[in-house]
Amino acid sequence: MTAAVARRLLQAVMVMFAMTVIVFIAINVIGDPVDILISPDADQIERARVVQALGLDLPLWQQYLRFLWAALHGDLGESYVYNEPAIRVILQRLPATLELAVSAILIAIVVGVPLGLYAGLRPDGILSRVIMTVSILGFSLPTFWVGLVLIMFFGVQLGWLPSGGRGQTAELFGVQWAFLTKDGLAHLILPAVNLALFDACLILRLTRAGVAEVLPLDFVKFARAKGLRETRVIGVHVSKNIMIPVVTIIGLEFGSIVAFSVVTESVFSWPGMGKLIIDSINVLDRPIITAYLMAIVAFFVIINLVVDLTYTALDPRVRLQGEGP
Amino acid sequence: MNATVLEVRDLRTHFGQAKAVDGVSFSVARGEVLGLVGESGSGKSVTGFSIIGLVDPPGTIVGGQIVFDGRDITRSSREEMRALRGRRMAMIFQDPMMTLNPVLRIDTQMIEAVQAHENVSRMDARARARDALGMVGIPSPDERLQAYPHQFSGGMRQRVVIAIALLHRPDFIIADEPTTALDVTIQAQILAEMQKLVAQNNTSLIWITHDLAVVSRLADRIAVMYAGRIVESGPVSDVLARPLHPYTAGLIDSVPSRNRRGERLRQIPGMAPSVARLPAGCAFAPRCARADAACAQAVPLLTAGPREHRCVHPLPEFRV
């Protein structure tokens, strides 16, 4: 077990290393930040001075080695825009995105799993058909449009919920969180629901498909033949068998939400990492973009590791590679 | 020995148009082993599932009675049936690889079976489970309780399933081809084990199978099913030695070991009819050499001593 985890971590380091190469080259292709950083009136001498200060006059491989050396020491460069270490800027925005992503995934699970179970147990019921039809809409509609409709309806027409910003925050473990205050919570609802919609539908359909697959199997019949109550047959025997695909999707989707909540964060002006990366790309703030991508890669690697470990807990037949029998 | 444990009267279980079970009657005495024989699709498994109240939808029991413990359990509520299942009646399935839940430990699956019917602590339930495993011949049961199903061989899994079926010392067990998926050597072991255990507990056994060899070793009485009906029943030695119904005779002749080496293997001509379109009279008539116009009429149950059959032209008794 420990060996398997160590091996995973080693793989993760190699993935991160490969990422630095790709990111560093790609970012040099998309544009020259000097044009944006320096005012158009600056003369040639001023321009040369800035280029030298940023180390942009060196050949690309030298720039890369300098970057790599600094990165190994935990320094991913200083943001051109914020004049702060890029990693600190990212970490400041991380809690906002994290709480949005966690709320969205929680909503998706709480809505998706029970509805999927219901639809799977009563495949011919009218309510099940309604659920399945609505779920198709749920993951077909574009997120930004649903976000706008939510704002229109709950923000503008009904005026129940605020439609932008993060609201009041409170401190916990030295970090500002919105979900701790009533105002912040109100601000959280719409963007979280918006983000959750797609995943709730996905989880719902997966759960339903799993139930339809497991229900006719002999061990379910045998569980009933033992005289178990229906709640236990469904809640333990069926549920535990359908959880593997659901956990996989939850893990993957959680990663995607953190990485690509750009659209929702923009629509609801949520001050998270997604909005930061869009702003940074617009001004070619290279250190922020690099740091962001590195952070996301690290995040995905961790999530995948957690998902793999969850498999072994859910299904005894699954063993991590490199682990003894 | 003579007290009737279970009596099935004119049971009809239909899946829409398909009359999977259409007028089956039999009874099982305490401690008796009844072999329910027939080919695939004859309705023998559906009969078993009807008795324990677990017919898969869209199948429903549309008629008849299943009398257990002095009451017709086809009228029992779901909760009443649940309380009977596993405690007073148990069922064992064909494929031991599929019967146990792959993601739950053996102890979980056994403890829950105990606790479904008795208000006992986990510790006591566990002790019961361990004793049950020991009883069916599983070595070091304490350790094996911790294992998952995939860590057992097929024969050992079927032993675990049998142990679960016996946990509450049920009045009868329905065994739906429990040895079909096993190697012949393991099959013989399980048969012997099963025979011993039901004799010890005076449990009745309904053994569903297509294998006449198994029935001849195990059963006291045999009931042969064809197209949703019992066409012949009686003491196992009588029926196998002197079948009255031509279908039973065909079934016996189809067992390869009874044919001579080098001779063409015998078979029953034609195919079993679809249970969705059964003829009004004898369902076997289209495949039967003895059939004539009289077979187109519905055949009542005819009695001959301890034996019953549904054939207007029964085979003569002196058949070799």
From TrEMBL, chain A:
Keywords, in A-Z order: Cell membrane, Membrane, Transmembrane, Transmembrane helix, Transport
Per UniProt, residues of the ABC transmembrane type-1 domain are 94-311
Note the superkingdom of the native organism: Bacteria
Q: How does it sit in the membrane?
A: Multi-pass membrane protein
User: Where in or outside the cell?
Assistant: Cell membrane
Q: Name one Pfam family in it.
A: BPD_transp_1_N
Instruction: Spell out where the chain crosses the membrane.
Output: 12-31, 100-118, 130-156, 185-204, 242-263, 289-311
Protein family according to the UniProt entry: Belongs to the binding-protein-dependent transport system permease family.
By what name is this protein known?
Peptide/nickel transport system permease protein
Tell me what organism the protein belongs to: Mesorhizobium muleiense
Upper lineage is: Bacteria, Pseudomonadati, Pseudomonadota, Alphaproteobacteria, Hyphomicrobiales
Automatic annotation (TrEMBL), chain B:
Q: Where in the cell is it found?
A: Cell inner membrane
Classification lineage = Bacteria, Pseudomonadati, Pseudomonadota, Alphaproteobacteria, Hyphomicrobiales
PROSITE patterns hit by this protein: ABC_TRANSPORTER_1, ABC_TRANSPORTER_2
Q: Does the keyword Translocase apply?
A: no
Q: Name it.
A: Peptide/nickel transport system ATP-binding protein
Tell me the superkingdom of the source. Bacteria
A single Gene Ontology MF term assigned here is: ATP binding
InterPro entries per the UniProt record, alphabetical = AAA+_ATPase, ABC_Ni/Peptide_Import, ABC_transporter-like_ATP-bd, ABC_transporter-like_CS, Oligopep_ABC_C, P-loop_NTPase
Keyword flag Transport: yes
The organism of origin for this protein: Mesorhizobium muleiense
